[in-house]
Write a structure and sequence with these properties.
Elements lengths: L2 H10 L2 H7 L3 E3 L10 E12 L8 E12 L2 H15 L4 E3 L2 E16 L7 E13 L2
Parallel strand pairs: 1-2
Antiparallel strand pairs: 2-3, 3-6, 4-5, 5-6
Length: about 130
């Protein structure tokens, strides 16, 4: 349940990302007045790998991380940097033991009803294996 803090720290600690968005990396939603570009991360699901004799030692979390920008090329660059930072990551971050993060795919979206000229979004899907200690 603490995976959000770990994802924030990995992304904000990646120079290619912080150079583009600074610390504008948010769980679930950004304010309407937030300037572009920024990143939003969402937990899509979390499934414990149950054991016969106790609590689950492993959780599998599906997470979506999205880059939002006012240009397609910028959203694409940030999306590539997100993938580079997270794909096959393993380690302990803020007390969260990440066994591995696997990139599972992405999709593009354009919202012409938001922002002055619309918003481009690059959404990346990851499967995260978290070891419960």
């Amino acid at each position: 349940m603490e995976i959000g803090k770990a994802i924030y720290n990995i992304l904000s600690g990646t120079l290619a990302i912080s150079n583009k968005v600074g610390t504008k990396i948010f769980p679930n939603v950004a304010t309407q007045s937030e300037s572009f570009p920024f990143i939003i991360y969402d937990v899509q699901s979390d499934s414990p790998e149950d054991t016969k004799d106790g609590v689950a030692n492993l959780d599998i979390t599906n997470m979506m991380v999205s880059a939002y920008s006012d240009t397609y090329s910028n959203a694409t660059e940030i999306g590539s940097s997100i993938r580079d930072a997270l794909d096959r990551y393993s380690g302990t971050v803020n007390g969260v033991v990440i066994n591995t993060i696997v990139f599972e795919g992405y999709n593009d979206a354009f919202d012409d009803m938001s922002g002055r000229d619309g918003i481009y979004r690059k959404s990346l899907d990851f499967k995260i294996r978290i070891i419960n200690t």
